[in-house]
Amino acid sequence: MNRRSSQSVVDQVLELAIAPSWSRIGYDIRRRMFDWDASALPRLDGRVVVLTGFTSGIGRATASLLGTLGATLHLVGRDPGRVASVSAELLADGIKVTTSIADLADLDAVRRIAGEIIEQHPSIDVLIHNAGALSRTYTTSAQGYETTVAAQVLGPFLLTTLLLEPLRSAHGRVLTVASGGMYAERLSVADLEMTSDAYDGVRAYARAKRAQVELAREWTRRNDDTVSFHTMHPGWADTPGVVESLPTFHRITRPLLRDPAAGADTLVWLAAIEASELGESGGFWLDRRRRSISKVPWTDTPAGERYRLWNWCKERTGLS
């Protein structure tokens, strides 16, 4: 067995085991095995990256790493104070930054910032959807949709649609940070938006992440190759969001969790490498490798469900 084949076997065995694959163990093994070197990534000077959810955790690490590579960043956050403080830190490091304030669950705010972004950046190389938290309590958006699905499915769908032309002008790519939790759910449009009496924050989050992955494939099917669409999951990372939303999981697994930079590694790599290295649009990635979107047959996507999801998003975002 040659070296490349043996590496592939080790990678596949790790992925089958899940826990070591998604923890810092999997990341450390793959980083050494495949000789990853973040400093060897292509420079991004002159390229525009729009990033949502940048003020902490993986988003904060992503902004710093992309900025270090020379990217011009347009950063979107919902808390004005945190947006101001984190963007000031990035500017102090010599990173080119502009910002917009919006809650991605508010579709009117999404329309507003899309106009701001286009006005400042008529050409966009990368759009990264990272915003989105796991909420234990049921809330609704300004338009009356359950907040998890509004912020992580409807808002990103609308923003992508509104930014398609500047993305096309740059032959850009759209990257979405999903979650390994989506493996637990099958796409069911009828069950995507939970009601208050049956709300389960963990399942709502997993269903939204499943929808993100499926939408990337539907975007690929419906668009020409001037824009590519990919999703990834960062593994188990030690972030403020995990501490807040999954305290028991964090307490038990903390020694095995990746740091935010490790969680951001594949996202930065997807944003930086040449398009020819990515292959076909619609990929789902972990640790710089394409992964299956289902691990058990009962979570396979039913026929026609992506089509229904697309129309569901269009209707609710007013794009019908």
Automatic annotation (TrEMBL):
Family matches, as Pfam families: adh_short (PF00106)
InterPro entries per the UniProt record, alphabetical: NAD(P)-bd_dom_sf (IPR036291), SDR_fam (IPR002347), SDR_member_12 (IPR052992)
Family matches, as PANTHER family: DEHYDROGENASE/REDUCTASE SDR FAMILY MEMBER 12, DEHYDROGENASE_REDUCTASE SDR FAMILY MEMBER 12
Name under which the protein is recorded: Unannotated protein
Organism: freshwater metagenome
Lineage: unclassified sequences, metagenomes, ecological metagenomes
